[in-house]
Amino acid sequence: MAAHQHSADNNYDVDVLIVGAGPTGLALAAQLSSFGTSFRIIDRQMDRSEHSRALALQPRTLEALRPFGVSASLAAAGHPARGLHLHLPEQTIPVDLSDAGIEDSEYQHLLFLSQAETERALVSYLSARGVRVERGTELQELDRLDPEDPFAGMEAKIQRMDRGIERVRARYVVGADGAHSTVRAKMGMGWRGSGYPGTYVLADVEAAGAEPNTIHAYLNDDGFMMLFPLGSPATWRLIGMKEQGDTSEATLGSLQTMADKFTGGALQLKDPQWISTFKLSHQIAEYYQFGSVFLAGDAAHVHSPWPRRE
Ligand SMILES: Cc1cc2nc3c(=O)[nH]c(=O)nc-3n(C[C@H](O)[C@H](O)[C@H](O)COP(=O)(O)OP(=O)(O)OC[C@H]3O[C@@H](n4cnc5c(N)ncnc54)[C@H](O)[C@@H]3O)c2cc1C
């Protein structure tokens, strides 16, 4: 095992066990690695997703990632949001976003970049430091080392595809294991909230006819459709709202029908790399921390971290 995987304290195998290697777990791993803290990072998936999913990086995120030397390459690979074209039924209004009023940051724009690229940059930082994400490794059970003391550390039962069950004693466990977090469920940390009405379609796609390097927002009485400049794995990310009651599968044909409604045939969609549907919800964990266990990222909240009054 690599040096970063051993706790200096004999009571524990490792100081921090990170469950989940999405952007949250990877960013935490980068931070702990830079601190010299011992940790392991596991993920049940054998490989990373190549889908664009969370495609917008905030200036503050880039500032937080800068110490790991990844922000410059992310900024170079991504598309800064400098302009928006607001397409209304009767007119198109260009909106200049180049002066967003963020004077106190090196990164002055929202940056569009596929989540796959953000994860790739973090994995490559970790690899260069000898940190390996343990893939095909699933957290199954989580118990306190001392049932009377929630701060005394945890024992995690993990299932490794190649080597069977392993028990890991960790001073801290961080659940960065997404919206359906096993850590949150095992700790009985509640999950409050509900879904928003409406279903959204997402696609990484080519869109002939769209002016490049700008955001396009199409609005009419029935809803909206947006195109964000992405670059990889396709030039554009499309997000649109499905019509109420439409439960049909999203296809290139149905996306083209949607685009035609907003543009009168001015856009030709082709070569989709990914088409998905997505429902939004507002859910938040009752606690972000209980004793030695923390929740982070989607495990703690989807999507806004602010509690909403029901
Ligand atoms: C189809 C889709 C489209 C999306 N589109 C957008 C978008 O357009 N914009 C946007 O902002 N966001 C979008 N998101 C959401 C965005 O991807 C998430 O907010 C982001 O990935 C959260 O990061 P995370 O690291 O907290 O969790 P995740 O990325 O969910 O990572 C959690 C990881 O934990 C692992 N894991 C789970 N349980 C266990 C376990 N028991 N043991 C070991 N590993 C485990 C999983 O395999 C996963 O790799 C989308 C998500 C999906 C699924």
Note the main attributes of this structure.
alpha+beta, eight-stranded mixed beta sheet, 310 residues, FAD/NAD(P)-binding domain, 19% helix, 6 helices
Polypeptide structure, described:
There is one protein chain. The protein has 310 residues and is α+β, with helices and mostly antiparallel strands. The chain has 2 domains: 14-50 and 118-193 and 282-302, FAD/NAD(P)-binding domain, CATH 3.50.50; 80-109 and 197-279, D-Amino Acid Oxidase, subunit A, domain 2 (D-Amino Acid Oxidase, Chain A, domain 2, 2-Layer Sandwich). It has 6 helices and 21 strands. The strands form 4 sheets. Strands 1, 2, 8, 9, 10, 11, 19 and 20 form an 8-stranded mixed sheet that branches. Strands 6-5-14-15-16-13-17 form a 7-stranded mixed sheet, with helices on one face. A hairpin with a 4-residue loop joins strand 5 and strand 6 (92-96). Helix 1 runs parallel beside helix 4 (115-128). Residues 19-25, 42-45, 53-56, 115, 138-139, 176-178, 182, 202, 276, 278, 297-298 line the site of flavin-adenine dinucleotide.
What is the gist of this entry?
The protein is α+β, with helices and mostly antiparallel strands.
Largest sheet report? 8 strands, mixed
CATH class wording of the largest domain:
Alpha Beta
Low-confidence stretches: none
Identify the bound ligands: flavin-adenine dinucleotide
Overall structural class, as computed from helix and strand content, comes to alpha+beta
Give the total of domains: 2
Arithmetic mean pLDDT:
92
How far apart are the termini?
48 Å
Question: Strand-and-helix sequence, N→C?
Answer: EHEEHHEEEEHEEEEHEEEEEHEEEEE
Helix content: 10-25%
CATH topology description of the largest domain: FAD/NAD(P)-binding domain
CATH architecture classification name of the largest domain: 3-Layer(bba) Sandwich
Coarse shape: elongated
Q: Compute the gyration radius: what is it? A: 22 Å
Overall strand count: 21
